[in-house]
Design a protein that fits this description.
This protein is an alpha/beta fold. It has two domains: about 210 residues, Rossmann fold; about 60 residues, no CATH class. It is about 35% helix and about 20% strand. The protein contains eleven helices and twelve strands. The strands form two sheets. The chain has a seven-stranded mixed beta sheet with strand order 7-6-5-8-9-12-11. Helix 10 packs antiparallel against helix 11. The N and C termini lie far apart (about 50 Å). The N terminus is likely disordered. It binds zinc ion. Zinc ion binds next to loops.
């Protein structure tokens, strides 16, 4: 194990302040590296040090991580709903699913804006960064917008193309920004910025890709709801930062207008899980043709393949639900929990 020497003469990667404070010992170890936990007194960002850690194999992580199963299940549902036909009914059903039936509220605000534009007859150019298997981009595209989804995961973008069409590319925002001349009315990045080693670079690329009156909508785990010395959710090197509202407010210095449109409190994870399973069943009963991904249901169609990491538990769907509930009670183990929704625009 390499010993990490934390060089506090470095400055904050977000605001540039030298006012960094190491808040605790090692918070994570990955391969040959250990990560420390640093707080910037100026912008309140929490940082994992060192920043340039080993390259993270997201394809592997997604295969193993139990919470990824929810995203895979969401993808199956959305694909199934949209495959019913191009009629607005199915767009609305897929939208309703993403707004109300998933574990977290990450998509709700962006989808609301996208739907409003559709109802007003405006066609937007939309970029989703970190689109994974593409289902959110697919729903936004159904509202008649010109959408592009990008992700660094080759397998995920290939699957998205097969399923939803050619609007996906495997690349990071750096490459994309270099070779595109397009400008976007809306850039979305749901739970992405906390994974990036250069979140400032990400913001400046968003700036270049935005139409003058364009909007960026980000979501990220809510650092204001974590204790100061606490790193909830994925440990480094998966999540490298924890953002709070003051961290985003700092971007005002760089000409961004910022607000938090969905600041309406949080849902308790346990209740959210129970509600999700219940509402999935309701939706299934109403529409009939969408797959049932409630593990407690007798019609449960997935299996160990979807809920990888729970292979043993999956032999008993009831046990799986029990395991999920136990995890939920132990708050803080990677639960897909509350997000801050941030809306940014450039001041004129
Ligand atoms: Zn800072």
């Amino acid at each position: 194990m390499k010993t990490l020497r934390l060089d506090l003469s470095e400055s904050c990667i977000w605001c540039g302040s030298p006012e960094l404070k190491a808040t605790g010992a090692t918070i994570a170890r990955y391969q040959e590296c250990s990560y420390c936990f640093v707080l910037c007194r100026n912008c309140k960002i929490k940082l994992a040090y060192p920043f340039q850690g080993e390259r993270v194999d997201y394809e592997q992580i997604q295969k193993r991580k139990w919470s990824s199963a929810f995203h895979r299940a969401d993808n199956e549902w959305i694909a199934s709903i949209l495959s019913n036909g191009p009629e607005p009914l199915w767009t609305e059903a897929a939208h309703a699913f993403l707004e109300h039936k998933t574990l977290d509220a990450r998509y709700a605000y962006a989808l609301k804006r996208v739907r409003e534009a559709y109802l007003e007859g405006r066609s937007l150019r939309i970029l989703e960064v970190g689109c994974n298997e593409g289902y959110a981009t697919a729903v936004m595209a159904r509202y008649g917008h010109r959408c592009t989804g990008i992700d660094i995961q080759k397998g995920a973008t290939a699957a998205a193309r097969r399923r939803y069409g050619p609007m996906y590319e495997c690349c990071g925002i750096e490459d994309f920004e270099r070779r595109t001349t397009g400008r976007f009315d809306l850039i979305c990045a749901f739970e992405v910025i906390e994974h990036l080693a250069d979140p400032r670079g990400f913001m400046s690329r968003c700036r270049k890709l935005l139409e003058p009156k364009g909007t960026v909508i980000l979501t990220t785990p809510d650092g204001d709801r974590m204790a100061p010395d606490c790193w909830l959710q994925d440990l480094p090197p998966i999540h490298l930062t924890v953002f709070s509202r003051p961290t985003f407010q700092w971007l005002r210095n760089e000409g961004w207008l910022i607000d938090f449109p969905e600041d309406r409190g949080t849902t308790r994870p346990l209740r959210a899980i129970e509600r999700r399973f219940r509402t999935m069943r309701n939706l299934h009963e109403r529409i009939g043709e969408v797959p049932d991904v409630d593990p407690a249901s007798k019609d449960f169609i997935y299996g160990a393949q979807t809920y990888v990491g729970f292979e043993k538990a999956m032999n008993s769907p009831t046990l799986t639900v029990r395991v999920l509930k136990s995890l939920a009670r132990l708050a803080g183990i990677g639960l897909p929990s509350q997000a801050i929704v941030v809306r940014l625009q450039l001041a004129e």
